[in-house]
Design brief:
Distance between the termini: 50 Å
Strand order of the largest sheet: 1-2-3
Bound molecules: zinc ion
Radius of gyration: 23 Å
Number of helices: 8
Oligomer: single chain
Number of strands: 11
Largest sheet: 3 strands, antiparallel
């Protein structure tokens, strides 16, 4: 097996700014290889969180910090690191919709760094008393239970406060029966502390020039570009035919991507030549 290169993750680019990790600790990553992508081909709604965590486990090289200690708020950013560097030719999201103001069609490729992110310097930790319990803001770790109920406020409360433990919340719905003022207190503690990738991007409509806020799907199953196994096999055969070399499972995908682009160029040129010949 070939050794892969590892690159440093700059703590300044993580929502936690690395403040919760030991002094002298470091996080490095490697680019996804073909084996990782084959593994990801089996991702679905039910296994997606585990699958993405497994990819993180494989691709991160941690020093003086354990995988279990990584914060949930950094998880998405780490995934984006992997995605941006692995799929260098196509790492963003394409969005297509009608502008609500001028009704013209907007098609835009969103690059990952454009997605709004808030870091802990823009947040603050506060507490409130509810039923005699001190409810305070917390940052959960990757190993903790991360809630994705689809209800933004519920998720914010469950993921950014200690209410689960203190108020003995078993089901997210339990929060909905709280008196309105208590619910509002919980939400304000959570909102003040909430940070990480925020899941939207502000873009300018090319027709009318207004700023539009577009939501980005951050579900685990869509975090990585999906490459189909059939496509991978086709690419392998073509690269072998045109370049005479084999794509191995250990090969980083960014290199494979370049090879495929090159082979496609060759195929196009070949087709052009054939056309010219047949015209003669
Ligand atoms: Zn518009």
């Amino acid at each position: 097996m070939t050794e892969q290169n590892y690159f440093n993750v700059n703590y300044e680019n993580l929502p936690s700014l690395g403040r919760y990790y030991k002094n002298g600790s470091s996080i490095k990553f490697r680019i996804l290889n073909i084996r990782d992508l084959k593994f990801l081909a089996a991702i679905n709604k039910d296994n997606s969180r585990e699958m993405v965590n497994e990819i993180l486990r494989r691709c991160l090289l941690l020093d003086k910090v354990k995988f279990e200690e990584l914060l949930e708020i950094d998880r998405l950013s780490l995934v984006f690191y992997l995605r941006t560097n692995t799929f260098q030719l196509s790492n963003g999201y394409r969005t297509e919709f009608n502008c609500p103001y001028c009704h013209n069609k907007v098609i835009r490729d969103i690059k990952l760094p454009e997605i709004a992110t808030r870091n802990i310097d823009d947040c603050f930790i506060s507490e409130e008393r509810i039923h005699g319990k001190v409810i305070s803001a917390i940052y959960k770790k990757i190993v903790d239970n991360a809630y994705k109920t689809g209800e933004r406020d519920l998720d914010t409360i469950l993921n950014f406060t200690n209410c689960e433990k203190e108020l003995k919340i078993v089901d997210p719905e339990d929060l909905l029966v709280l008196p309105a003022d208590e619910y509002a207190k919980l939400l304000s503690v959570a909102e003040r502390a909430r940070c990480g990738v925020l899941g939207y991007v502000d873009i300018t409509c090319p027709s009318c020039g207004r700023t539009l806020r577009v939501g980005i799907d951050l579900a685990d199953e869509t975090l990585f570009n999906k490459v189909s196994i059939v496509q991978m096999i086709k690419n392998r055969v073509q690269v072998n035919k045109y370049c005479g070399c084999d794509i191995s499972d250990d090969m980083p995908y960014n290199e494979v991507e370049i090879m495929i682009a090159y082979v496609n160029e060759l195929i196009e040129k070949e087709a052009e030549m054939m056309q010219k010949k047949s015209r003669r």
